Structures are given as structure tokens and as C-alpha cells.
């Protein structure tokens, strides 16, 4: 999570795939629940770019606030993944650099 740059987001499934755990998005979500305060959990969203918390909840508002502070536009609880996110192999290249 720390490798995701400010102003960008990844999906739970994308993070799981990069970690070598394809189709384990829920495991990533569970891991984020207990992460240290300095981990940028707010940069991880559900597919396809949706904030996973219930709208209006404290967690939803906090994630929205943090994303907006980094310049990530969110409309109706969704982030334009074409503009702010990554897909497939591109996530690996952007997080870890070229081979």
C-alpha cells in the first residue's frame, strides 16, 4: 500500500494480484482493517473505483476527505479509474517500476 503514490488509487483486487494472491480482494480488505496508521489505506478502493464503505459513514467520509486532499476526484462515491487508477499489469509496472 505504501508504494501507491499520492493521487492514485488501486483496487483491492489489483493489490491482491500484485501480492501474488489473485482473486483474494477480500483478504486485502481484511488486512487493511488492522494496518498501522501510516499505511495509506484510503488509496485502495473496490472495483470499479467505488468507495467500499457505506455512504455517509465515518469511514466513507474519511476516505473521501483523504482522496480529495490528494487531488483524486470522487463523484457519487466512485473514482474514475481511467484517470486515477491502474488496471492489470500496469499496476505492477507503476508500483514497482520497469523490469
Order of helices and strands: EHHEHEEHH
Instruction: Report the portion of residues in β strands.
Output: 5-15%
Please, what is the CATH homologous superfamily?
Winged helix-like DNA-binding domain superfamily/Winged helix DNA-binding domain
CATH names the topology as: Arc Repressor Mutant, subunit A
Ranges where pLDDT stays below 50 over 5 or more residues in a row are none
- Percent of residues in helices comes to 40-55%
Q: How are the strands of the biggest sheet laid out side by side? A: 1-2
Largest sheet: 2 strands, parallel
Q: How many angstroms does the end-to-end distance come to?
A: 20 Å
- Total domain count: 1
Word description of this protein:
The chain has helices at 12-18, 25-33, 58-69, 81-84, 89-96, and strands at 10-11, 44-45, 74-75, 78-79. The protein is mainly alpha-helical. The chain has a single domain (10-96), classed as Arc Repressor Mutant, subunit A. A two-stranded parallel ribbon has the order 1-2. It has a two-stranded antiparallel ribbon with strand order 3-4. A hairpin with a 2-residue loop joins strand 3 and strand 4. The model has no long low-confidence stretch (mean pLDDT 87).
Present the secondary structure layout.
Elements: E1 10-11, H1 12-18, H2 25-33, E2 44-45, H3 58-69, E3 74-75, E4 78-79, H4 81-84, H5 89-96
Parallel strand pairs: 1-2
Antiparallel strand pairs: 3-4
Helix pairs in contact: 1-2
Concise synopsis of the structure shown:
By secondary structure, the protein is mostly helical. The chain has five helices and four strands; from the N terminus they run βααβαββαα.
Amino acid at each position: 500500500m505504501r508504494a501507491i503514490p499520492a493521487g492514485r488509487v488501486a483496487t483491492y483486487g489489483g493489490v491482491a494480484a500484485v501480492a501474488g494472491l489473485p482473486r483474494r480482494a477480500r483478504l486485502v480488505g481484511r488486512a487493511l482493517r488492522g494496518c498501522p496508521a501510516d499505511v495509506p489505506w484510503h488509496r485502495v478502493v473496490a472495483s470499479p473505483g467505488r468507495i467500499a464503505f457505506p455512504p455517509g459513514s465515518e469511514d466513507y467520509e474519511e476516505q473521501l476527505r483523504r482522496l480529495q486532499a490528494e487531488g483524486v476526484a470522487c463523484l457519487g462515491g466512485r473514482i474514475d479509474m481511467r484517470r486515477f487508477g491502474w488496471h492489470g499489469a500496469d499496476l505492477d509496472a507503476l508500483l514497482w517500476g520497469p523490469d
